[in-house]
């Protein structure tokens, strides 16, 4: 498995959904950086399961235990290793999956790739549980980025067919990002957020699930970040974002909508502001030109599929009998993973950006 990411800053994620613990090793952090562990814990709580009605009922404390890499509250040059215990695992819920793969999950592909040796409990190493250590690393990286004037925040842009207001791609700033991410349900328009929660509740009642889109913005990113051709800003960010389970699409700036525009509509006019800085009047390019940051806010979106674990009977196969069958899953699952995915998107962006800035 390739469970590592990064060039100058390298992270390696370990563990499975129902193993004793999940965790991460972060190598390459600059020494002498103070890490506020209370802030790290608050960030992890935004992703943690079992905290509200639209989350799985599996409750985990998600309290990281730092094994190395910090000395007197600061990074010390050694790899930073943190472990998060799985305290509420329930592997018996997954006994059927050894033989009958769940539609929409990696059960079958993992079985085929690893010759049946994969841990199928809760998806094993393919589980969204592995986003807990990802968020730990992201929380650490965000604190370091903030000292360099870079601020990251995301919100729920849509759930099913209900849409929130988007970030203003030109004026989004640190305060907007902080105000949004501090909300229990991170949206810009709270009325839209209420409708989203209703849609999630209805899907849960119907033994179904819904997906959605997370929009993320980065303010304060310097000009010139990104290395063409294969290490452009979009490429590096996309690699990290697609490591989040259930992400099926990523777009930057106008994204796919730009294909419907004229060049005269999509181009962003340059100008000098009152301080002599180069800016653009609009930001259809989402802060990236030629794979390199332009100095405008970085804007991107990640699309999440509906949670594949639903409680309706579904068609599948028996691997041992090599015949068609049906499957009714049990267990604890999110009717919509999008609310808990918001900090995961921020974390993936933080890791990728700090790796590129070092």
Structural write-up:
The structure is a single chain. This protein is α+β, with helices and mostly antiparallel strands and 358 residues long. The chain has one domain: Chorismate synthase, AroC fold, CATH 3.60.150. The chain is 25% helix and 23% strand. The protein has helices spanning 37-47, 107-113, 131-146, 174-181, 190-205, 233-241, 263-266, 338-357, and strands at residues 4-5, 10-15, 21-27, 64-68, 70-71, 74-75, 80-85, 151-159, 162-163, 212-219, 247-252, 270-272, 278-280, 288-289, 292-293, 298-304, 314-318, 323-327. The chain has a 5-stranded antiparallel β-sheet with strand order 1-2-3-7-4, covered by helices on one side. Strands 9-8-10-16-11 form a 5-stranded antiparallel β-sheet. The longest helix has 20 residues, at 338-357. The model has no long low-confidence stretch (mean pLDDT 95).
Quaternary organization? single chain
Sequence stretches where pLDDT stays below 50 over 5 or more residues: none
Mean pLDDT across residues: 95
Question: Which structural class fits the helix and strand makeup?
Answer: alpha+beta
CATH superfamily: Chorismate synthase AroC
Largest sheet: 5 strands, antiparallel
Number of domains: 1
Per the principal axes of the C-alpha atoms, what is the gross shape?
Answer: globular
**CATH level 3 topology:** Chorismate synthase, AroC fold
Distance between the termini: 26 Å
Over the alpha carbons, how many angstroms does the gyration radius reach? 21 Å
Number of helices: 8
CATH architecture: 4-Layer Sandwich
Q: Helix-strand pattern, N to C?
A: EEEHEEEEHHEEHHEHEHEEEEEEEH
